[in-house]
Amino acid sequence: MKTIVSYVLSFAAAAVLAGQSAVAQTEKHMNTAGIYAFTMKTIDGKEKNLSDYNGKVVLIVNVASFCGYTKQYAALEALYKKYKGQGFAILGFPANNFGAQEPGTDEEIKDFCSRKYDVTFDLFSKISVKGADRHPLYTYLTEDTGVTGDIEWNFTKFLVDKHGTVAARYKSKIAPDDAELLRTVEGLLSAK
């Protein structure tokens, strides 16, 4: 009987270790795959693998329609138009985490961005970027990238290199046409 119990305990321990190994492998994959490990829903409701941006420099921004920084949509669109032909993309993630400044539906948000700011860069379905319901993409961005810390407000920006790794983070007050941000974008675009 003692041998059977020892066998069962050994088997259970091996199963736990195998499970931990699988979790570690998944975490390792996410860390090496960067943003490419995620699939997100576009503002039109379609699934989009962020691996589709492999080889591009990407600016990820949590956006809101009724924020003091909402006017940054115009500068984001100008930045996108200036560099999109060189392999640059902007991903806008509407979020209602700060002062209820993004209360609309995806359809309302898309209409607002198109009508008011002529946004043509990629917009995604509204998500949470902070708190208990924070989306896993933002858990990754704020905990696993070397530029950690909670999102403090709307229009926080993460600049991602051509390999899916976060290269820089900018606070809301840093405008999309900030000289340092532009230098970093240009440097990443010219890198292999």
Description:
With 192 residues, this protein is an alpha/beta fold. The protein has a single domain, classed as Glutaredoxin. It has five helices and seven strands; from the N terminus they run H-E-E-E-H-E-H-E-H-E-E-H. It has helices at 2-33, 72-83, 106-117, 136-143, 179-190; strands at residues 39-41, 47-49, 57-63, 88-94, 122-123, 157-160, 166-170. The strands form two sheets. Strands 5-4-3-6-7 form a five-stranded mixed sheet. A two-stranded antiparallel ribbon has the order 1-2.
Brief descriptors of the model:
disordered N terminus, 5-stranded mixed sheet, Glutaredoxin, 16% strand, alpha/beta, 7 strands, 5 helices, 192 residues
SSE order and pairing:
Elements: H1 2-33, E1 39-41, E2 47-49, E3 57-63, H2 72-83, E4 88-94, H3 106-117, E5 122-123, H4 136-143, E6 157-160, E7 166-170, H5 179-190
Parallel strand pairs: 3-4, 4-5
Antiparallel strand pairs: 1-2, 3-6, 6-7
What count of structural domains? 1
Strand content: 15-25%
Which class in CATH terms?
A: Alpha Beta
Second-tier CATH architecture: 3-Layer(aba) Sandwich
Alpha-carbon distance between the two ends:
63 Å
Total number of strands: 7
The helix-and-strand class reads: alpha/beta
Helicity level, as a percent range? 25-40%
Number of helices: 5
